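Posting this for the archive.
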Amino acid sequence: MQAQFASKALKAYESGDYANSILFWDQELKSDKCNKEQAYFLLGNAHFKNKNYAYAIANYEKSLRENYNQEDVKFNIKVVRAKLGLDTENKILFTNDILRKICFFFSEFTLKLFVVFLSMILVAYSIFRYFKGDIKLGFLRHYLFALTFILAILFFLQQYFKSQSGPAVISIESTGFENINLKGESKTLREGEIVQILDEVGETIQVETEANKIYWIQKSNVIYI
């Protein structure tokens, strides 16, 4: 069923039926076996073609959360932000993070494979050393242990980055207020702008804008990433 939704989504996109492509990708994302990295990227493309620019940005950012090192996704984010008249260099959520670049250098599967393989070597060496005594290359054990430890940290950091929440995208041009009652000094927040969620009270949320200003806005005016 999972492959069926993906196939339908691609066919709808190719035929110019972007609305149905979006629906099919939404169904695809509900599958446990869904390739979220690809699905969010292609869903973002469908939203872009359907002129849902804020939703396009949100889904591109979700794709980067699954695999940070996707230059085509980062480029698409810049294209959409430029179309909305937003900064294209300095305020993209995941595109300037060195730690994420390192963590996603290897895929999740590759990191798992390396950690398991190196751990097995260390166990085998420990067993051999117990029964046969040390060997000339015993110093390599320390390097293997350090490498296994580093790769395990990268794996768990990947999982952490994928599960993070907090950022959101302004879905429609909104007015932000300095007061929780939506009164006082106000500022227009533009569609597609990335904000950090700081607090939530009922149907209003407190956000930090790309200009590092703090305002309260309607909760319904953002798309959570």
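The chain has three domains: 2-92, 103-162, 167-224. The helical segments are 2-14, 18-28, 36-49, 53-66, 71-83, 98-103, 108-132, 140-163.
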